[in-house]
């Protein structure tokens, strides 16, 4: 059906002009133009508008952010929709609603075109599973020319973002022609999936091709990410020199931030400081990188000072900034500073961030204010994610409320929130410290059998500690023997504590010998063995352990107490 063929060429042209003017001037006219389209003379003769008009209208609604109206107009005039209409709507929905975008792509059936395939690939790259990318790939094989670099680059990117780098590489290798964007998609894909060696090799290939595949800020920042994760500061310095030659060292902020991140993660503080001082333009990511670096190196006061400097420089903090600043104030036990950051979070509207919400709970908990941690939790309980639930469970557990922590875990399951491996560490620790052996067994089984989480040494250590505290030393030893992985220091340390609790000197000696080999500098193991000897009246052996510690110049760490006074927590 065509309005033009029915003699309404002039009216069609007028409507198209109006739609295009609205798109480039005032998109709020979309609803008025939609109404004009419906009541137009041509609309009276035909129940649905011309496909070009429908496509323009859908695009106009999408540009205004009114996706529901765009979808409503599309559904109301579905018979008029062609492949461009589908492409416009799928493209608009790709990022905010990738699942819905993919469903519309599937509805298009025989209307697939390169434009529609590209839009669907954008949806796949927004978080859909690899199966979706494979379905779009199958359609692309029929609808797209093999030499269409744009679509095939989109396939490389979609597979990479879905975590299927084998498929991504296969598409890349099968491309008759490749552009710089194709190489960048592969390189960034390897870096994103922590395949650092492969990312560096792709960068080497690109550099070897010279002007045929010019290096740009995407390729340089991508390989710097790989160097950061691999800890390969040597190659990172070579990339730095390359970036300087290309004028990207300080000319592209994403490259400057990548260099800064690489140097801080590799422990090169001097180079990082020189680069930071040389940067004329610093965005929020720049500041976040250096603040996170301070926290990794336990320089919490400096992290807080940098956060304050960022605010003074007029850079608006984001959710990462607030979460890291709260983490620093928690480690400093500064409730006053944390509370002031909390006030800024409320003012700027970042309380909706999952990371910020969980950091607030952790901060108040570590500063000894469990009531305020609960208030922070309850303030966002309607939209809590696994991070916030885990933070609250951990807060209760670490403040000696293990039974309440277990109750909170049960509420989390009732809300349908799937726990992660950190959640199970906290709940198993709660069971351990409160003698809840049967519940601990059930939760461990729930973790492995239902949620399919592979136990880490932390989970194993919690279980061994739980059996030991309950006096089930034999079961603790059997549990270790059935682990399937070699026990590390945390697991053996829990077993040594169990030997102390169950007064089993023979097993304690065996376990201690293993621990002295694994971590010879841990004074806690020596002290524990000496105490076990002393509890059995073997004072000479206990003295020998203490003499051996002195010979190795090992000193028992002093205990500390936390004192809360005038909203300030101090360590004594």
Explain what you see.
- PPR repeats lie at residues 179-213, 283-317, 385-419, 522-556.
- It comes from Urochloa decumbens.
- This is Pentatricopeptide repeat-containing protein.
- Pfam families: E_motif (PF20431), PPR (PF01535), PPR_2 (PF13041).
- Keywords: Repeat, Transit peptide.
- With 572 residues, the protein is an all-alpha fold.
- Helices cover 71% and strands 1% of the residues.
- It has a two-stranded antiparallel sheet.
- Helix 1 (9-24) runs parallel beside helix 4.
- Mean pLDDT is 88; it is low at 1-7.
Question: How much helical structure, as a percent, in the residues?
Answer: over 70%
Strand order of the largest sheet: 1-2
Poorly predicted ranges: 1-7
Strand residue content: under 5%
The chain-level mean pLDDT equals 88
The radius of gyration over CA amounts to 31 Å
The count of strands amounts to 2
Largest sheet report: 2 strands, antiparallel
Number of helices: 33
Gap from first CA to last CA: 83 Å
The coarse silhouette is elongated
SS-based structural class?
Answer: mainly alpha
Provide the fold topology.
Layout: H1 9-24, H2 30-39, H3 41-45, H4 51-63, H5 67-76, H6 83-93, H7 98-108, H8 114-124, H9 130-143, H10 149-161, H11 165-173, H12 180-192, H13 196-208, H14 217-230, H15 233-246, H16 253-265, H17 269-278, H18 284-296, H19 300-312, H20 319-331, H21 335-348, H22 354-366, H23 370-379, H24 386-398, H25 402-414, H26 421-433, H27 437-450, H28 457-469, H29 473-481, H30 489-502, H31 505-518, H32 523-535, H33 539-551, E1 562-565, E2 568-571
Antiparallel strand pairs: 1-2
Helix pairs in contact: 1-2, 1-4, 2-4, 4-5, 4-6, 5-6, 6-7, 6-8, 7-8, 8-9, 8-10, 9-10, 10-11, 10-12, 11-12, 12-13, 12-14, 13-14, 14-15, 14-16, 15-16, 16-17, 16-18, 18-19, 18-20, 19-20, 20-21, 20-22, 21-22, 22-23, 22-24, 23-24, 24-25, 24-26, 25-26, 26-27, 26-28, 27-28, 28-29, 28-30, ...
